[in-house]
Amino acid sequence: MKLRRAVFAGLAGIFFTANAEATTFFIDELQITRNGNTDWFVDPFDDGNPPPSSESVFPDDTEASYITNPNPLPGPEANSRVELDTADGTPQTSSVTGREILLQRARVRTNTSDDNERGLKDTHTFQVRGLFDLVEPTLPLEIYGIRLTDFGATDANDNASLWVQRTATGEWRVRFLEADFGLGVFDELDSFLLPDVAQLGEYEQIALMLTKGDVNSSSVTASFELIDTDASLANVEVDLGGSAQLFDGERWTRAGFLAVQVVPESVPVPATLLLIGLGLVGIGYRRRKQTMAD
Prior knowledge:
Blueprint: H1 2-18, E1 24-34, E2 37-43, E3 66-69, E4 77-78, E5 81-85, E6 90-93, E7 100-108, E8 120-121, E9 126-133, E10 143-149, E11 159-166, E12 172-180, E13 185-193, E14 205-212, E15 219-227, E16 236-239, E17 244-245, E18 252-262, H2 270-293
Antiparallel strand pairs: 1-2, 1-5, 1-9, 3-7, 4-5, 6-7, 7-18, 8-18, 9-14, 10-11, 10-18, 11-12, 12-13, 14-15, 15-16, 15-17
Helix pairs in contact: 1-2
């Protein structure tokens, strides 16, 4: 009996692991401040149309939009939020890790010419702020966050990301990273263990910020803020260490947000699990009969 109970307990664990569900994240607002103008780009996600649709209008009266993958984002956009279910992402292979991922990504379609009056250029100061519901990722390596990127350039070598992630070891962290996708390089600049914050459960939202604060520098720094929407607790602000470098080979960058699920490796399909389970049950049954005969 003990062996049979152990077999069924083991099977339950296997099936639970194989069927672990992806997490649904929510972005509440994306804001880009340029040269001190907090209204340069603001998308509150409240018109019911997920990206590539945007409700923001640039100062030159150009309507803003996104470059998305998938196109459009599955959404829905409701309750002033875009739903980001990582199970609905586009399947592809990570150019850095070689792992299979499910990706949802939206980049604001900004100017990439040498026109200093448009886009996010090396001569500007700017901050990207993504406001998300504070949700703990379920799956290992699952993430949501913001990014500055030169995707669209030939080398895609300047990428600064700030995201919330469940790490491979099960920790819940905010991570600041720099990537060169052309060379396949991915470096962590700093990270913060979220459970270290007292009364974390009282905070409902997290704002992630990437900031270029000096017109004479290509450096981008990262910070985040834990927000209690009821204002019963003071917000918690954290500056992360390190800085990412942009504008190596081009003068522009683009801002956006993303959600990613890293597909678990070597997960048996249900049919295989069933065969394994039947085999284990058979072994248990034979051993029980043998014990009774003895």
